[in-house]
From TrEMBL:
PANTHER family to which the protein is assigned, alphabetical: PHOSPHOGLYCOLATE PHOSPHATASE
Biological process, per Gene Ontology: DNA repair
Name the UniProt record assigns to this protein: HAD family hydrolase
Protein keywords: Hydrolase
Pfam families: Hydrolase
Domain of life: Archaea
Gene Ontology molecular function: any one: phosphoglycolate phosphatase activity
Length: 209
């Protein structure tokens, strides 16, 4: 059975949904043109899926200014095209049946998140949604997680909660906020280049059943 929790928090990209590779490749091609630097398939994969943790640190390691990169990246993302090329993982369906408050904590920006949720038809799965910004903080910072917990009215009252995500930042945010962590490994340990720990480690949410 799915573990019993008083509330659930979930990441979005790579956890509940993913996007066709052709879209990712095209975006990185256009961003590369703007920055005067091409991105290999591996580099695009690493950044898109956050395979090495902090994307900003990875950009800096490659000699790319994060602010310049993200400005170009967001300018080149078309919300409607992104939504059309996004698909829902079959094993994510359990979220619709959760009998508990459910929150979304995602790094996906609001101008992209809303069309994606509408396209895959899961907007009503969540009681509270938060798209991280510089103001809210970014996972693994617990601040955005704690903000959603506050809005769900489950903070600081003994409720037992969990955060499920596909990256180390999600696990870190869960633990930093005092929650259990479910890591769903969508890309595989070999492609990620490391093993991500969690209170639960699964390749599909079906394994929780």
């Amino acid at each position: 059975m799915v573990p019993e929790y008083d509330f659930w928090l979930l990441d979005l990209d790579g956890t509940l949904v993913d996007v066709e590779w052709s879209y990712t490749r095209e975006v990185f091609d256009r961003v590369g043109d703007r920055l005067g630097r091409s991105f290999t398939d591996r580099e695009a994969d690493v950044l898109w899926n956050g395979l090495t943790g902090s994307r900003d640190r990875q950009l800096e390691a490659w000699g790319i200014d994060p602010t310049e990169f993200w400005t170009a990246f967001h300018d080149e993302e078309d919300p409607l095209v992104r939504a059309e090329q996004t698909y829902l993982h079959d094993d994510a369906a359990f979220v619709a049946d959760l009998d508990a408050p459910v929150g979304l904590v995602t790094h996906c920006q609001e101008f992209l998140c809303e069309p994606v949720l509408e396209n895959v038809g899961i907007g009503d799965w969540f009681d509270v949604r938060l798209c991280c910004t510089e103001e809210t903080g970014w996972k693994p910072d617990p601040a955005p997680v704690e903000r959603v917990m506050h809005d769900l009215e489950v903070a600081s009252n003994g409720h037992r909660g969990v955060l499920a995500g596909d990256g180390a930042n999600d696990v870190g945010a869960a633990w930093n906020a005092g929650l259990d962590a479910i890591h769903v490994e969508r890309v595989g340990h070999e492609r990620r280049g490391q093993c991500v720990l969690g209170d639960y480690r699964v390749q599909s949410f079906d394994e929780l059943g």
